[in-house]
Amino acid sequence: MTDDAFLADARELVRTGLGRRAREHSGVSLEEMAAAVGVSVVELMAWELGEREPRGDAARDYVRVLRGLSNRP
Fold first, then answer.
1. What average pLDDT is seen over the chain?
2. Position 10 pLDDT exceeds 60
3. DSSP labels for 41-63?
4. What percent of the chain has pLDDT over 90?
């Protein structure tokens, strides 16, 4: 997947609220997700509230972590 595709996916997950719902459904805290993605809790909260958009490596890592959560038993 290209960086542009990861960025588009990350922004769609944030815009629709699917990323937050997936995180919460999996029982992953803001703190745990922020650490896994490499951003601050404040940054992740801003994404999930629609105040900022994911960028760069953090956007890619956000998509990868969420995909990993959806593959957990």
1. 91
2. yes
3. HHHHHHHHTTSS---HHHHHHHH
4. 78
Q: What is the count of structural domains for the chain?
A: 1
Element (H, E) at 21: helix 18-25
Q: Are 44 and 30 in contact (CB under 8 A)?
A: yes
- Which pLDDT score is estimated for 73? 55
Token pair in block for residue 20:
């937050």
Helix (H) / strand (E) containing 13? helix 3-16
CATH of the domain at 13: 1.10.260.40
Residue 34 is part of which domain span? 3-70
